[in-house]
Design goal:
Layout: H1 6-30, E1 42-44, E2 52-56, E3 65-70, E4 74-78, E5 86-91, E6 94-99, E7 103-104
Antiparallel strand pairs: 1-4, 1-7, 2-3, 4-5, 5-6
C-alpha cells in the first residue's frame, strides 16, 4: 500500500485550481463576477484571426461599437463590475463594454 502526503494532495489541488482559472473566468462573468478581481490584464481569446473583438458603449450587443481589439490583442484592463457576461474594459485609451467570453488570462 502506498501513502500520499496530504501536503502533496493539497499542492496538486491548488495547482489545478490556479491552472484552470483562465477557463473559469468567463463562467464567473456570466454569474455576475467582478472581473476587476481577476488578473491585472486580459487577452482576447476565441476570436478568429481575421476578426476583431468589439468594444461597445453599453453592456450588450445592441449598443454602438466604440472600438475594436484585434484577435491577438492583450493588455485589456477590466474596470468592473460586470453586468452579466459583459464587463467594462479599457484598451489603449478606448473605454467600453465587451463580452467576457472573449477574454482570458
Amino acid at each position: 500500500m502506498k501513502f500520499v502526503s496530504t501536503a502533496a494532495i493539497g499542492l496538486a489541488v491548488l495547482a489545478g485550481v490556479a491552472g484552470g482559472l483562465g477557463d473559469a473566468a468567463p463562467a464567473m462573468a456570466q454569474r455576475g463576477y467582478d472581473c476587476a478581481h481577476g488578473p491585472d490584464t486580459w487577452r482576447v481569446r476565441g476570436v478568429p484571426s481575421w476578426d476583431r473583438l468589439n468594444i461597445r458603449s453599453g453592456p450588450s450587443a445592441s449598443w454602438e461599437i466604440v472600438g475594436t481589439i484585434p484577435a491577438t490583442g492583450s493588455g485589456v484592463h477590466c474596470l468592473g463590475p460586470c453586468k452579466g457576461k459583459w464587463c467594462r474594459v479599457s484598451w489603449r485609451g478606448i473605454v467600453g463594454w465587451t463580452n467576457m467570453r472573449f477574454l482570458g488570462e
